[in-house]
User: What shape does this take?
Amino acid sequence: MIVMRLDRMLADRKVSSKELAERIGISPVNISRIKTGKINAIRFSTLEAICEVLRCQPGDLLEFIPDAEVASVLGIAAPHTEAARVQATGLVVEGPEAEGTATGVVHGDAAGPSADIGLAGA
Assistant: This one.
């Protein structure tokens, strides 16, 4: 599972979501979707723009957590059980029907209409 750490980097750099959105040319709503994991993919051009503004590396924004460790890292039950899915509602994005995350978890195998957040005109 890939975890998005944009919220942490924004706090570290003391940059608001609104300011980041303005500086990279995407809507504040799309920044929010990136932060909360309501996306399934991100364009490299968008990731590059975020890294340029925040002066960071892509690895500072993205973290890989093996499925076996997800439960302990996120403090939830084992991720492949129905109880965990109920407990993690809003935490783990596993497909286009998922509602997103409060902690910024993004799972890379899913695709859907909101899967590609990018720069306007990119």
